[in-house]
Structure formats: structure tokens, C-alpha cells
Amino acid sequence: MSMKSFFLILVAGLILSVGNGFRMSLGIYVPDLLSSTIFGASMIGLTYGIFNLLWGCMSPIAGAFAEQKGYVKTLMVGFIGISLSFYVTSSAVDPVHFLLGLGVIGGLSAGIISVPVIIGGVSKYFEDDKTRSTVTGILMSLAASGMFIFTPINQFLVSTFQWSLSFQIVSISFLLFIPMSLIFLIPKPKNQNIKKYTPRKISDVIKQAFQDKSYQFLILGFFVCGLHVALISNYLPVFAKIQGLEVTIAATGLTLVGIFNMIGTLISGRVSGIIKKKYVLSFIYFTRSIVIFLLLILPTTNFVIIAFSCVIGLLWLSTVPPTSGIVANRFGTRYLSTLFGIVMVSHQSGAFVGSYVGGLVIDLYGSLDLAWIMAIIISLFSAVIHFPIIEKEKSEEVFA
Q1: Which of 24, 62, 157, 382 could disulfide-link 221, Cβ–Cβ 3.0 to 4.6 Å?
Q2: Are 272 and 129 in contact (CB under 8 A)?
Q3: Against a cut of 0.90, is the pTM above it?
């Protein structure tokens, strides 16, 4: 691997680390929001849900814009938008202000620096499936580092300054990340193997993708991943508090999710380049159902929270390398940011459901049991739905 490729992967991974780190540790703020504002759990859940949904909806749009107009401009807009979002939200005194600031502005802006955009951009620098799967695993491992880096930071901020001032500090910090966008000024390598590619418009590719049953199954399965991630990251602190544990144990748990996520994504990326990616996905979703079931039936102790966090961390974003790999395998990398972004809309639709349902069942029943049961059932569904997916022996028009 060349030095340019190394720095590309490193900085692109850091962009994902920043975006995912803050997004996936927002649950740390929920207990303070519940105790210091008039926002109920349902409203906070709705806001987080809209954030996730708009994050997903913006991903393919940002991906298409980046593919046409350039990744540097696109990412700069995303960082500025997130900064604005946290600043506007920091002064929220009513639920609508909070929803518009964090849910709408934050969700749209976060979608611009999202996983599909970055992976689509980086994938254009690498030619074969095996290398791309490995690189994606490395990227997602670096993305996972954000969770264990920023969870304790956010825990420190909210415990020291409370949520409002913490949001202002986060707002300033995002402006400092803007220069990382410049990494995509690195020129793409020239393809060594000269091929004749079929000219395709982006609209034609999207139409073809939606007619593809394997792509449809992938979209359905990724919905489940989003629900799991949102439910656990947003409500593990509240779950711990409901069960009589300190919120700090959940913060420790989420930090461990981030650490073990790094390991899981690296393993997933490597394995996805060796065996069929659909089998990797089925294994991940089936194992998730078992882990969540054990959390539901076992007595909730500090040890159970820690053990759950470690195991679920291995399965956290390990779905991304095989999922993006299947998209690239079937449609090539030219429009990967757009096509994987569309799959991500499904993921974030699941995140919306997980965020909102989690808050709703807490308000209605004071417990997350029903939400855990729902997560188990659909996880089993997702494990099955990936089996009919067909993977090609060789992906098409890599550098088209």
C-alpha cells in the first residue's frame, strides 16, 4: 500500500470517527435532557429518530452530489452544517426548537459526512473486491474508534457542563475538523487494466438496482441493523438507570462497544473478502438475536451490561463491509456512494423506528422489554433474508 493510500484511509477513517462518534454517543445526553428539560422520552426519541432518518435520506443525495461535483466541497458543507446544528440546538427551550435544531438540521448535515459518502469516495481508489472489503473494514474500524473516543468525552461534558453548554463546545469542535475534507484532493490512480465500460447514467443504475432482488433483500436486512444500533446507543444509559444501575456503567458499556467494534469490523472486512458476504451478514444478525435475548432474560448487573457491550460491539458495524461489498460486487464502484446511500436510507429508517419506539415504550411502560423483543424477532428475519442474495464472481466496471 502506498503512502498516499495510507493517508487517504487514515483521514477518511477519522472523518467517519468524528461523525459516528458524536452521533452514536448522543444517548449519553438523554438522562440529563429528561431531568433538566420538558422534553419527554418520546419527544427525545422522535428527535433522534428524525435525525437518523434524515441522515439516511441525505446520504444518497450527498453521495450523488459528491460523485458529480467533488468530495471536498461536499464534506465541508457537512461539517459546517453539523456545527450550526449543535449551536442552534444548545439554546432550545421547547421540544419543537430541539427537534428542528438537532433532528432536522443535524440529521441532514450528518448525512453529508456519512458512511456511504466516505466509503464510496475511498472505494474509487482501489480496484478489486478483496482489497475494497479489507479497506472498508479498516475504515469502519476507524469509524468505530469514534464511539470509544467520544462517548467518555460526551460523558465528561454533560456531567461537567450539562447538555446545553456541551452542545456549544461540540459546535466549535466541528469547525476544527473541516480541513480533513481536503484529503480527497489526492488524485485517483490510473487503472492498469484498460477496459471498455458500458456507459451508464446514474438514473439508469438506480432503476436497475431497484429491480434487482438481491439489492431489495439487502435493503430489507439493513433496516434491522439501523434499528439495533439506534435502540442500543440511545437507550442503554436509560436502560441501566431503569434497572437501578449507575448511568456511568452504560457509558463504559458504549465505550466498550466502540473498542470491540473496531475488532469486529476488521474481522468482518477480512472475512468478507474470503467467503460469501451474505453468509457473514446472516451470521451477524443471528448472533445479535441471541445476545439481545440474553440481555432480556438475565438479571441486569454491571457484569451483564459490560459483557453485552463487548459482544454486541463485535457485531456493531461489522455489517458495513459485507453490505457495501455486495453493492459494489453487483453494480461496481462508480455510483457506490449513491447506491450504498440508498441502502443506508433503509438502515436509518430502522434507526428512526428504534429511536422512537424506544422512547415510546419507556413513556408507556417504564421499560424497554417490548423494544428488546421486537429487536430479537426482526434480527432473526434479517438473518434469513440474506440467504437468497446472489453474489457475482467478479464485480463490474470498477473504475467506470
Answers
A1: 382
A2: no
A3: no
